């Protein structure tokens, strides 16, 4: 009994860590009935490549999280596809990525006094940024 509880607890912790490391997708817009998990979501990077009539259902944006390595946009793309299925979308039009400031902190401050009595204080500030990906969620007409 104790072994089962210990194994269940370890599994729950591993699952929680895996889920918490996935980028969160913020969505603003309309929703339709969810798509089947096997439904292919079309991916576009230029609106000119879309040959079907569509409406823009809404906007998706990856939630900036400092601890997640967003240098690999594939993970964010996969999360956006899941969100598109959940919202009933047919396609995603990726709008691009940009850097967003998430925090800043003073890292050091020093004061120097020279022989002529002049005092100079210098402060160094670090700004932490993350990559954010934006996309439009599309529904074919």
Report on the structure:
- Strands 1-3-5-4-2 form a five-stranded mixed beta sheet.
- By secondary structure, the protein is of the alpha+beta class.
- The protein has one domain.
- It is built from two helices and five strands.
Properties at a glance:
alpha+beta, five-stranded mixed β-sheet, 2 helices, about 25% helix, about 45% strand
What is the element layout, followed by pairings?
Blueprint: H1 2-20, E1 25-29, E2 42-44, E3 54-62, H2 73-87, E4 91-113, E5 119-140
Parallel strand pairs: 2-4
Antiparallel strand pairs: 1-3, 3-5, 4-5
Quick overview:
The protein is of the alpha+beta class and 141 residues long. It contains two helices and five strands.
- Number of helical segments with 4 or more residues: 2
Derived from helix and strand composition plus strand pairing, the structural class reads alpha+beta
Q: What portion of residues is helical? A: 10-25%
The backbone outline, from C-alpha atoms, is: elongated
pLDDT averaged over residues: 80
Order of SSEs, N→C?
A: HEEEHEE
Low-confidence stretches: 14-20
Measured by DSSP, the beta-strand proportion falls in 35-45%
Count of discrete structural domains: 1
* Strand tally: 5
Q: Could you describe the largest sheet, including whether it forms a barrel? A: 5 strands, mixed
Distance between the termini: 56 Å
